[in-house]
UniProtKB/TrEMBL annotation:
Main location (coarse class): membrane
Lineage, top ranks: Eukaryota, Metazoa, Chordata, Craniata, Vertebrata
InterPro entries attached to this UniProt entry: AAA+_ATPase, ABC1_TM_dom, ABC1_TM_sf, ABC_transporter-like_ATP-bd, ABC_transporter-like_CS, P-loop_NTPase, Type_1_exporter
Organism: Esox lucius
Protein name: Transporter associated with antigen processing, subunit type t, teleost specific
Family stated for the protein in its record: Belongs to the ABC transporter superfamily. ABCB family. MHC peptide exporter (TC 3.A.1.209) subfamily.
Domain ABC transporter, chain residue ranges per copy: 474-709
């Protein structure tokens, strides 16, 4: 059975059923039997019967059909309960098994509109052949974001309660305004007038109070959601492998963390706020409008098809918004890169160039902004036609209203209330359309955030190995490695080498030979494509992450210090570290005396990225940071490059004194290399020759030649 047939059947059955029941019960004067409980029981029974019938007809109920049927069955008891609880005076009707025809019509209209709106925005059924895959994905994403809101359920429940109360109060404002007008026009009765004025004041104050509380609670849960999401995202981000950070620019990642998380939160807290508010208000108003005049209500419904036109325009706007997000992320990345490298920019006099690049990015943002605004704000074809039809409907309504007033079917106050309701209803419907569009846009942001959240690092997970004693024997077995950006040109080709425990090994060779790549593998920044890097006979990935990075410490070519104190930088990454240990490491790195000359000693700030220190001091602090871990394997990648001669000699002395440690030095300077127990010469990603300084010199091979070319400067 096709879906449209199923919908048709349900609707027909619904009408026949109500017609028969209503006529039967009214004829038998039995319509008030059962009360509210009876109405609920009857609704649930109908829902069950429908589910059973749908299962029989189709074998597998369509989700959209199931949603529609449940709303059809349950909305009448919900409406009647709400009416009884909030405005018993307005109803005056007796509740029974069958609600009054107005409520039935309202239930049919509301459930159809709600399901249609949901299906248009986030389709999930096969009934919609034109549905887009993206929209389905958007729905899944949205539901995921909703699930992330679970911890805020109490805040949200309270917010929804205030939302419903506020909207109901707001809906009744025009109703009481109409009543006041009627009182003024008709024979003045003080009590009724006071009642109408009091009612108006009550609903006005109630509406603003509830709206305030609702807004506050929604913002509160939004802030909590943002905090949680940022925490999770950052947690996942720092777990990612290094190639991920090479592929994704830091500007885009921080933009995900700051802007997209915020937009994602908005999709839930703010949009669902507006969405629910509009829905509740729309149906509340429909209810009151039907009570005032069903003819005028039907007339005002004619405006609905126009929303489809508006939806299309709004979808184009959303497309522009998506492009705008990417342009903003790009501009942010350019700005942060220029600011972070301001010294380089200044020293090359490249300010104008950077300005121009940033200006171009701003131009693109401006273009996207203008294009999106021209679609959303400038009157277009669909917009003008929508306005014309709206005016036409208003004129028709006034004529019909005039006719009803002359035939005493409507009072002037009721017509006024109706016009106010109608105006409000149109703006609510538009808001609904916009919110659906906006939800899709924010779901786009959610998509980026969720993709980042879902990303699992390509690198193998660390093992659990934490041996109490470690020799520090490092071996490379046939290691081949490529950077992901250059998969076809290996940086290391079947490299086999050994770093002996307690010995100092030097890696030398021309630039681009693969020395730093060996260091990166040793620090497990990357995993080899082929072969293994082993520590004491076990592959590096077998060791526990924290353990490995405590036992294998690296001082890289350009050590990075973090803004914070010197002490914070030396004990960086360690859980508990005493000041004595920090001082001891600083002494060994020959930087203690310098630190003592500073006014705040170890608590002195180093500035952003250590900018307030010389490069030699930065290197020494980086060495202290490595030494404080008491590593078994110490890697110095050109670590002595930025030091003056005195400091260099002092540090070398310290290193020479590190008995039992495996030391790997990547160096271009002869003094560093000559002292090494073992020298490995690397060129073009391969180990070309190895041995002691004397052996290699005697061999008169590549090392000898390089020494003559470079080391004798
Ligand atoms: N992040 C990277 N992405 C892509 N290729 C890289 C990357 N880092 C290095 N390479 C390439 O890998 C090869 C080996 O580089 P590596 O840095 O290991 O050489 P090196 O011997 O340490 O050079 P230097 O003495 O100049 O530091 C080079 O061809 C280099 O261009």
């Amino acid at each position: 059975m096709t879906c449209s047939k199923a919908y048709g059947l349900v609707l027909l059955w619904e009408l026949l059923q109500w017609g028969a029941f209503w006529a039967g019960l009214v004829l038998l004067e039995f319509s008030s039997a059962g009360g509210l409980v009876g109405l609920w029981a009857f609704g649930l029974l109908r829902a069950l019967l429908y589910s059973f019938a749908l299962l029989l007809a189709d074998g597998r109920p369509q989700p959209v059909l199931a949603r529609w049927v449940s709303m059809l069955c349950l909305l009448p008891p919900v409406f009647e309960s709400g009416r009884m609880a909030i405005v018993p005076a307005v109803s005056g009707n007796v509740i029974g098994l069958v609600p009054d025809p107005g409520t039935v019509v309202l239930a049919v209209v509301s459930s159809t509109v709600a399901c249609l709106a949901w299906e248009l925005g986030f389709p999930d059924s096969d009934c919609n052949p034109g549905r887009k895959k993206e929209n389905q994905k958007a729905r899944v994403q949205l539901m995921r974001v909703v699930r992330y809101c679970r911890p805020d359920i109490f805040y949200l429940a309270a917010a929804f309660l205030f939302l419903s109360l506020g909207v109901i109060c707001e809906t009744f404002i025009p109703y009481y305004q109409g009543k006041v007008i009627d009182m003024l026009g008709a024979q003045f009765r003080h009590n009724s007038f006071s009642y109408a004025i009091g009612g108006m004041a009550f609903v006005s104050v109630g509406s603003s109070l509830c709206s305030g509380l609702r807004g506050c609670l929604f913002m509160c849960s939004l802030a909590r959601l943002n905090k949680r999401m940022r925490h999770m995202l950052f947690h996942n981000l720092v777990q990612q492998d290094i190639p991920f950070f090479e592929e994704n620019k830091s500007g885009s990642l921080t933009s995900r963390l700051a802007n997209d998380v915020d937009k994602m939160g908005r999709s839930v807290a703010l949009n669902s706020n507006v969405l629910l508010r509009s829905f509740v208000k729309l149906f509340g108003m429909l209810y009151l409008m039907l009570g005032l005049s069903w003819q005028l209500t039907l007339l005002s419904m004619a405006e609905m098809p126009l929303l489809v036109l508006l939806q299309k325009t709004y979808n184009t706007y959303i497309q522009y918004l998506k492009q705008l997000q990417d342009c903003q992320a790009h501009a942010k990345e350019l700005a942060s890169q220029a600011v972070a490298s301001v010294r380089t920019v200044r020293s090359f006099g490249a300010e104008q160039q950077e300005l121009q690049r940033y200006n171009e990015a701003l131009e693109r943002i401006h273009l996207m902004n203008t294009s999106s605004r021209s679609v959303s704000d400038v009157p277009s074809g669909p917009y003008v036609s929508a306005q014309c039809v709206t005016v036409g409907i208003k004129v028709a309504m006034l004529f019909q209203g005039r006719r009803l007033i002359s035939s005493d079917q409507l009072s002037i106050g009721s017509l006024l209330a109706f016009v106010l309701f109608q105006k409000d209803m149109v703006s609510n419907m538009r808001q609904l359309v916009y919110v659906f569009g906006d939800m899709l846009a924010t779901v786009e942001a959610a998509d980026k955030v969720l993709k980042l959240l879902d990303r699992k690092p390509d690198q193998r997970e660390s093992g659990e190995l934490v041996p109490t004693t470690l020799l520090g024997r490092i071996t490379f077995h046939n290691v081949t490695f490529c950077y992901s950006s250059r998969p076809d040109s290996p940086a290391l080709k079947a490299v086999t080498l050994e770093l002996r425990p307690g010995k100092m090994t030097a890696l030398v060779g021309p630039s681009g030979g693969g020395k730093s790549s060996c260091v990166c593998l040793l620090a497990r920044l990357y995993d080899p494509m082929e072969g293994q890097v082993q520590l004491d006979g076990h592959s590096l990935h077998c060791y526990k992450h924290q353990y490995l990075h405590q036992k294998v410490a690296l001082v890289s070519q350009d050590p990075v210090l973090f803004s914070g104190s010197i002490r914070h930088n030396i004990e960086y990454g360690l859980q508990r570290c005493t000041l004595e240990k920090v001082q001891e490491a600083a002494k060994r790195a020959n930087v203690h005396n310098f630190i003592c000359t500073l006014e705040q000693g170890y608590n002195t700030g180093v500035g952003e990225c250590g900018d307030q220190l010389s490069s030699g001091q930065k290197q020494c602090i980086a060495i202290a940071r490595a030494l404080v871990r008491e590593p078994q394997v110490l890697i110095l990648d050109e670590a002595t490059r930025g030091m003056d001669v005195n400091t260099e000699h002092a540090v070398k002395g310290v290193l020479a004194g590190s008995v039992g440690q495996t030391v790997l030095v990547v160096a271009h300077r002869l003094e560093t290399v000559e002292k090494a127990d073992h020298i490995i010469f690397m060129e073009d990603g391969e180990v070309v020759e190895q041995g002691t300084h004397q052996e290699l010199m005697a061999k008169k091979g590549r090392y000898h030649r390089l020494k003559e070319e470079l080391f004798e400067d």
